[in-house]
Queue: 2 jobs
Job 1
Amino acid sequence: MVALAETALEPLVGASLGVRDIDHGFVLHNEYLPVLEDVSFDVQPGEFVALLGPSGCGKSTLLRLVAGLDRPRHGGLTVDGVEVTGPDPSRVVVFQDPTLYPWRTVWRNASLGLEARGLLKQQRNRVDEALALVGLERFAQVYPHQLSGGMAQRASLARALVNDPRLLILDEPLGKLDSLTRLTMQGELTRLWQARGFTVLMVTHDVEEALLLSNRVIVFSDRPARIRADLKVDLPYPRHRDHPELLRLRREVLGLLGLGGDW
């Protein structure tokens, strides 16, 4: 694997996030299905916050609300004190699937954000810088089918970074990678966050991954999701899986998820 590179991209000031009294759900077969219930928390600029909870409890739904892709039925969200009313280039989502356009090269996929905003002609160098940052500069002219899973996810990250996001929203971005690639990408994602300074909100089902990467872990109940715990992970980077405090936190989180007996 190629390590993350040094580039001319300057560090950012991450965005703050406020989530207030969120209730949300969907109408299914003419019946209301509650998904999120009384969810409130704050994220400080530059924090890395992981969201954990049972599958289907509403974590990805919450990410869509933060991204402005949906509006909550009750409550509100703010970024830097401004209400979230729709998508914004400063808030970028990276999904589990890279969602690259197969007919566009890696470079052309990474340039989509600038192209959509009419900025590509003036800021082409940003695409090159983002690809270098994720170690794909030598693969700029290849197509998605020529990439490994890890490389495709790097390309997806580069596409996000081109927009200079102040809030990076990650929906299980490493969930479909093989175990060795996932371990490598965990370290590189941490270094990327430290180098750039943006705020991260990440959904994962991997308890160890959440504790290795984040400053805080927010644990949700089953649907309708309510916050069960908000745990601070006060450990230096890089972290080691056998650190006693990390093991203690892992036991605590598994207990909160009803899996304490599986430790």
Job 2
Amino acid sequence: MPKRITAYSNSTVKRLRSLRDKKARREEGLFLAEGLRIIAEARDSGCLPEIIAFSADGAKHPLAADIIAATEAAGGEAIETTPDILSKMSGKDNPQLLLAAFRQPETLLQAIDRSTAPLWIVAQALRDPGNLGTILRTGDAVGAGGLILVDDSADPFSVETVRASMGAVFTQAIATARWDEFIAWLRAGPGQLVGTSLKATADYLEADYHAPCFLLIGNEQQGLPEAYEQACDLLVKIPMAGRADSLNAAVAAAVMAFQVKASWRV
């Protein structure tokens, strides 16, 4: 039976609210997801929350009621609270009717099985959580195996990233690594490393991509370091017809990912 919480000082309220902070997420090993759509995507991917908080109206939806019941049956905590307290926990003036805390998955590079998908996305020093979440969503859309974050990147489990991913944070494997660790791991097995560069001469529409393909996307402002470009098996360029000299990192990832998949169609 769900607990009823109406006090801002409640320990569970404080705990969920703290998960908006990266340090607390690391210490707890949990992250927040908001809204029925994303939480349902998690359930469909085999992930149930450890804690789910909801308003009375939020529990009225049959799908929400099913997820709340499944969470309790699995030993999780379900709490009914007020919209004001949901707002306090989410940090939004107009909060979703459901908010949940999920256990963070393992992010070790060694946990990645490259044989499970023909395409993987690798992002280097990506700083914007919206871009990161959008790239996860793109990976899901093209059937990529997951996202490997190289060097210092935005937190893939921040509220902003999870929201932008539209549930893809639950469908895509996620790993983090330093560049030297990643390149050693990559070269220990099959894999074509493909980078984008303004200095490249090969057109992205005419290049020959091989599975498993690891699509390397550079930092939003600086692009790929020269040493990283030199380590690529293939460098391609997305031609710009207008005054802009490059695309947003998330847009470039989407353009490249769909082209790689399109090039494999028989």
